[in-house]
Give the backbone structure.
Amino acid sequence: MERFLRIALIFGIACSATVLILLNGPVAAADEAQALLQADQAFVQAFTKADKAAAKKLLDTAFTWTDAAGKISTRVLVLQNLGSAAGLKLSISSEGGQPKEYTYGPVGVVQVNDGKMHVLRVWVKRPAGWQALVYQEVKSLDAPPSVTPGAGKVCENPCKSVPYRPKTPGEKDVVASYLALESAAVAHNAADWSAHVADEFAAVSSNSDQQLDKPGRMAGLEKEKMGGVAPTPLVSARMFDFGDAVVMTSRHKPDRGNPLHITRVWIKRDGKWVETLSYQTAIQPAARGAAPK
Protein backbone atom coordinates (compact mmCIF):
# COMPACT_ATOMS: atom_id res chain seq x y z
CA MET A 1 0.00 0.00 0.00
CA GLU A 2 2.79 2.38 0.93
CA ARG A 3 4.56 1.61 -2.33
CA PHE A 4 1.34 2.24 -4.25
CA LEU A 5 0.87 5.62 -2.58
CA ARG A 6 4.47 6.58 -3.34
CA ILE A 7 4.02 5.71 -7.01
CA ALA A 8 0.73 7.61 -7.14
CA LEU A 9 2.37 10.66 -5.57
CA ILE A 10 5.23 10.61 -8.08
CA PHE A 11 2.76 10.19 -10.94
CA GLY A 12 0.67 13.08 -9.66
CA ILE A 13 3.67 15.38 -9.40
CA ALA A 14 4.74 14.46 -12.93
CA CYS A 15 1.28 15.16 -14.30
CA SER A 16 1.12 18.51 -12.49
CA ALA A 17 4.51 19.51 -13.90
CA THR A 18 3.35 18.58 -17.42
CA VAL A 19 0.20 20.66 -17.03
CA LEU A 20 2.21 23.62 -15.77
CA ILE A 21 4.58 23.38 -18.73
CA LEU A 22 1.65 23.23 -21.17
CA LEU A 23 -0.03 26.19 -19.51
CA ASN A 24 3.12 28.28 -19.13
CA GLY A 25 4.30 27.74 -22.72
CA PRO A 26 1.77 30.12 -24.34
CA VAL A 27 2.13 32.56 -21.44
CA ALA A 28 5.92 32.67 -21.84
CA ALA A 29 5.56 33.16 -25.62
CA ALA A 30 3.10 36.01 -25.05
CA ASP A 31 5.46 37.62 -22.56
CA GLU A 32 8.33 37.43 -25.07
CA ALA A 33 6.16 38.96 -27.78
CA GLN A 34 5.17 41.79 -25.45
CA ALA A 35 8.79 42.38 -24.46
CA LEU A 36 9.75 42.49 -28.14
CA LEU A 37 7.08 45.07 -28.95
CA GLN A 38 8.14 47.18 -25.97
CA ALA A 39 11.74 47.14 -27.18
CA ASP A 40 10.58 48.03 -30.68
CA GLN A 41 8.52 50.95 -29.39
CA ALA A 42 11.54 52.13 -27.40
CA PHE A 43 13.59 51.95 -30.62
CA VAL A 44 11.05 54.11 -32.47
CA GLN A 45 10.98 56.64 -29.64
CA ALA A 46 14.78 56.77 -29.39
CA PHE A 47 15.16 57.63 -33.07
CA THR A 48 12.15 59.95 -33.12
CA LYS A 49 13.67 61.96 -30.24
CA ALA A 50 17.29 61.43 -31.37
CA ASP A 51 18.05 59.96 -27.95
CA LYS A 52 21.57 58.61 -28.41
CA ALA A 53 21.82 57.06 -24.94
CA ALA A 54 18.57 55.14 -25.37
CA ALA A 55 19.46 54.04 -28.90
CA LYS A 56 22.88 52.78 -27.80
CA LYS A 57 21.28 50.35 -25.34
CA LEU A 58 18.97 48.95 -28.02
CA LEU A 59 21.44 48.34 -30.86
CA ASP A 60 23.32 45.07 -31.17
CA THR A 61 27.06 45.33 -31.83
CA ALA A 62 26.46 43.94 -35.36
CA PHE A 63 23.53 46.29 -36.07
CA THR A 64 23.12 47.73 -39.57
CA TRP A 65 20.68 50.28 -40.96
CA THR A 66 19.75 50.04 -44.66
CA ASP A 67 17.77 52.96 -46.05
CA ALA A 68 15.43 52.87 -49.04
CA ALA A 69 18.29 53.85 -51.38
CA GLY A 70 20.34 50.86 -50.25
CA LYS A 71 22.85 52.79 -48.19
CA ILE A 72 24.09 50.63 -45.30
CA SER A 73 25.25 52.22 -42.05
CA THR A 74 26.91 50.40 -39.17
CA ARG A 75 26.04 50.84 -35.50
CA VAL A 76 29.01 53.16 -34.96
CA LEU A 77 27.98 55.46 -37.80
CA VAL A 78 24.31 55.44 -36.83
CA LEU A 79 25.05 56.48 -33.25
CA GLN A 80 27.70 58.98 -34.32
CA ASN A 81 25.28 60.88 -36.57
CA LEU A 82 22.15 60.56 -34.46
CA GLY A 83 20.84 64.01 -33.58
CA SER A 84 22.88 65.77 -36.29
CA ALA A 85 21.84 66.91 -39.75
CA ALA A 86 23.29 63.68 -41.13
CA GLY A 87 21.36 61.56 -38.64
CA LEU A 88 19.13 58.80 -39.95
CA LYS A 89 15.38 59.24 -39.71
CA LEU A 90 12.60 56.66 -39.53
CA SER A 91 10.78 56.38 -42.85
CA ILE A 92 7.58 55.30 -41.07
CA SER A 93 6.59 57.14 -37.91
CA SER A 94 5.01 55.53 -34.88
CA GLU A 95 1.60 56.55 -36.27
CA GLY A 96 2.39 55.43 -39.83
CA GLY A 97 1.60 51.73 -39.69
CA GLN A 98 0.52 48.85 -37.50
CA PRO A 99 3.49 46.63 -36.65
CA LYS A 100 3.31 42.86 -37.12
CA GLU A 101 5.57 40.85 -34.84
CA TYR A 102 6.86 37.30 -34.80
CA THR A 103 9.12 35.64 -32.27
CA TYR A 104 11.28 32.63 -33.07
CA GLY A 105 13.02 31.84 -29.81
CA PRO A 106 15.97 34.25 -29.57
CA VAL A 107 15.05 36.01 -32.83
CA GLY A 108 12.23 38.50 -33.20
CA VAL A 109 10.82 40.21 -36.28
CA VAL A 110 8.78 43.41 -36.58
CA GLN A 111 7.34 44.44 -39.95
CA VAL A 112 5.67 47.78 -40.64
CA ASN A 113 4.01 48.81 -43.90
CA ASP A 114 2.76 52.24 -44.93
CA GLY A 115 1.66 52.41 -48.55
CA LYS A 116 4.67 51.67 -50.74
CA MET A 117 7.14 51.95 -47.85
CA HIS A 118 8.06 48.82 -45.92
CA VAL A 119 10.29 48.54 -42.86
CA LEU A 120 11.83 45.46 -41.31
CA ARG A 121 13.38 45.33 -37.86
CA VAL A 122 15.07 42.10 -36.81
CA TRP A 123 15.75 41.66 -33.10
CA VAL A 124 17.94 39.18 -31.22
CA LYS A 125 17.72 38.15 -27.58
CA ARG A 126 20.86 39.00 -25.64
CA PRO A 127 21.53 38.75 -21.88
CA ALA A 128 20.58 42.42 -21.57
CA GLY A 129 17.30 41.87 -23.43
CA TRP A 130 16.10 42.36 -27.00
CA GLN A 131 18.54 44.24 -29.23
CA ALA A 132 18.09 45.37 -32.82
CA LEU A 133 20.25 43.56 -35.38
CA VAL A 134 18.72 44.83 -38.63
CA TYR A 135 16.77 47.89 -39.69
CA GLN A 136 15.90 47.84 -43.39
CA GLU A 137 13.71 49.96 -45.62
CA VAL A 138 12.20 48.90 -48.94
CA LYS A 139 10.21 51.18 -51.22
CA SER A 140 8.01 49.33 -53.68
CA LEU A 141 7.46 50.49 -57.25
CA ASP A 142 4.44 52.65 -58.01
CA ALA A 143 3.54 50.52 -61.04
CA PRO A 144 4.15 46.91 -62.17
CA PRO A 145 7.71 46.34 -63.43
CA SER A 146 8.36 45.91 -67.14
CA VAL A 147 11.23 43.50 -66.48
CA THR A 148 12.34 41.31 -63.58
CA PRO A 149 16.08 41.27 -62.81
CA GLY A 150 17.20 37.70 -62.25
CA ALA A 151 19.98 35.13 -62.65
CA GLY A 152 20.15 35.12 -66.44
CA LYS A 153 19.25 32.35 -68.89
CA VAL A 154 20.83 29.60 -66.78
CA CYS A 155 20.59 29.73 -62.99
CA GLU A 156 23.88 28.41 -61.62
CA ASN A 157 24.06 30.85 -58.69
CA PRO A 158 21.89 30.69 -56.56
CA CYS A 159 20.23 27.50 -57.86
CA LYS A 160 23.14 25.04 -57.83
CA SER A 161 25.75 26.73 -55.66
CA VAL A 162 26.58 30.00 -53.90
CA PRO A 163 29.92 31.58 -52.91
CA TYR A 164 29.38 31.09 -49.19
CA ARG A 165 31.01 28.55 -46.89
CA PRO A 166 28.72 27.60 -43.98
CA LYS A 167 30.29 27.84 -40.53
CA THR A 168 27.76 25.69 -38.63
CA PRO A 169 25.53 22.68 -39.38
CA GLY A 170 22.55 25.03 -39.21
CA GLU A 171 24.03 27.34 -41.82
CA LYS A 172 24.76 24.34 -44.04
CA ASP A 173 21.13 23.25 -43.88
CA VAL A 174 19.94 26.81 -44.56
CA VAL A 175 22.11 27.01 -47.69
CA ALA A 176 20.66 23.69 -48.90
CA SER A 177 17.11 24.95 -48.36
CA TYR A 178 17.97 28.26 -50.03
CA LEU A 179 19.29 26.51 -53.16
CA ALA A 180 16.20 24.31 -53.33
CA LEU A 181 13.88 27.30 -52.87
CA GLU A 182 15.52 29.31 -55.63
CA SER A 183 15.61 26.31 -57.98
CA ALA A 184 11.88 25.81 -57.45
CA ALA A 185 11.21 29.50 -58.12
CA VAL A 186 13.12 29.41 -61.42
CA ALA A 187 11.23 26.26 -62.42
CA HIS A 188 7.91 27.91 -61.44
CA ASN A 189 7.25 24.91 -59.21
CA ALA A 190 4.97 26.38 -56.58
CA ALA A 191 4.57 23.13 -54.63
CA ASP A 192 8.32 22.58 -54.22
CA TRP A 193 8.83 26.27 -53.44
CA SER A 194 6.18 26.21 -50.70
CA ALA A 195 8.00 23.37 -48.90
CA HIS A 196 10.83 25.79 -48.09
CA VAL A 197 8.67 28.72 -47.00
CA ALA A 198 6.82 29.44 -43.76
CA ASP A 199 3.09 30.15 -43.78
CA GLU A 200 3.74 33.70 -42.52
CA PHE A 201 6.14 34.39 -45.39
CA ALA A 202 6.38 38.01 -46.56
CA ALA A 203 8.45 39.51 -49.36
CA VAL A 204 8.93 43.03 -50.64
CA SER A 205 11.36 44.36 -53.23
CA SER A 206 12.46 47.64 -54.77
CA ASN A 207 11.91 45.88 -58.11
CA SER A 208 8.25 45.04 -57.46
CA ASP A 209 5.01 46.90 -56.88
CA GLN A 210 3.62 44.07 -54.74
CA GLN A 211 3.77 43.01 -51.14
CA LEU A 212 3.88 39.25 -51.45
CA ASP A 213 2.58 36.62 -49.04
CA LYS A 214 2.86 32.85 -49.49
CA PRO A 215 -0.41 32.27 -51.40
CA GLY A 216 0.25 35.29 -53.63
CA ARG A 217 3.77 34.16 -54.47
CA MET A 218 2.60 30.62 -55.22
CA ALA A 219 -0.12 31.93 -57.53
CA GLY A 220 2.46 34.04 -59.37
CA LEU A 221 4.82 31.08 -59.80
CA GLU A 222 2.01 28.90 -61.14
CA LYS A 223 1.26 31.57 -63.76
CA GLU A 224 5.01 31.89 -64.47
CA LYS A 225 4.94 35.49 -63.32
CA MET A 226 7.82 36.69 -61.11
CA GLY A 227 6.35 40.13 -60.41
CA GLY A 228 9.77 41.76 -60.04
CA VAL A 229 11.03 39.18 -57.50
CA ALA A 230 13.32 36.46 -58.85
CA PRO A 231 16.43 34.51 -57.81
CA THR A 232 19.57 36.62 -58.29
CA PRO A 233 23.27 35.66 -58.08
CA LEU A 234 24.66 35.94 -54.57
CA VAL A 235 27.88 37.95 -54.24
CA SER A 236 28.42 37.82 -50.48
CA ALA A 237 26.51 36.81 -47.37
CA ARG A 238 26.60 36.90 -43.61
CA MET A 239 24.68 34.56 -41.33
CA PHE A 240 23.83 34.80 -37.64
CA ASP A 241 23.06 31.34 -36.26
CA PHE A 242 20.81 31.25 -33.19
CA GLY A 243 20.11 27.52 -33.11
CA ASP A 244 16.67 27.06 -34.65
CA ALA A 245 16.72 30.51 -36.29
CA VAL A 246 19.23 32.01 -38.71
CA VAL A 247 19.35 35.64 -39.85
CA MET A 248 20.88 35.97 -43.32
CA THR A 249 21.96 39.24 -44.93
CA SER A 250 23.37 39.19 -48.44
CA ARG A 251 24.35 41.20 -51.50
CA HIS A 252 23.26 40.15 -54.97
CA LYS A 253 24.11 41.15 -58.54
CA PRO A 254 21.17 40.56 -60.89
CA ASP A 255 21.61 40.15 -64.63
CA ARG A 256 20.24 43.68 -65.03
CA GLY A 257 19.44 46.67 -62.86
CA ASN A 258 20.92 47.64 -59.49
CA PRO A 259 22.56 45.31 -56.96
CA LEU A 260 20.34 44.13 -54.11
CA HIS A 261 20.77 44.02 -50.36
CA ILE A 262 18.55 41.25 -48.98
CA THR A 263 17.64 40.19 -45.46
CA ARG A 264 16.10 36.79 -44.81
CA VAL A 265 15.11 35.05 -41.60
CA TRP A 266 15.14 31.24 -41.62
CA ILE A 267 13.65 29.03 -38.93
CA LYS A 268 13.69 25.31 -38.25
CA ARG A 269 10.07 24.18 -38.11
CA ASP A 270 8.97 20.54 -37.97
CA GLY A 271 12.54 19.48 -38.70
CA LYS A 272 12.87 21.60 -41.87
CA TRP A 273 14.46 24.98 -42.52
CA VAL A 274 11.98 27.46 -44.02
CA GLU A 275 12.22 31.10 -45.03
CA THR A 276 9.93 33.49 -43.18
CA LEU A 277 10.70 36.70 -45.06
CA SER A 278 12.73 38.31 -47.83
CA TYR A 279 13.29 42.07 -47.84
CA GLN A 280 15.08 43.22 -50.98
CA THR A 281 16.45 46.76 -51.27
CA ALA A 282 17.99 47.94 -54.54
CA ILE A 283 21.33 49.66 -53.99
CA GLN A 284 21.29 52.91 -55.92
CA PRO A 285 24.59 54.11 -57.51
CA ALA A 286 25.12 56.86 -54.92
CA ALA A 287 24.77 54.36 -52.07
CA ARG A 288 27.17 51.71 -53.30
CA GLY A 289 30.18 50.58 -51.32
CA ALA A 290 31.52 47.54 -49.57
CA ALA A 291 29.01 45.56 -47.52
CA PRO A 292 29.58 45.83 -43.75
CA LYS A 293 31.39 42.87 -42.23
In short: The two ends are 68 Å apart (CA to CA). The longest helix spans residues 2-48.
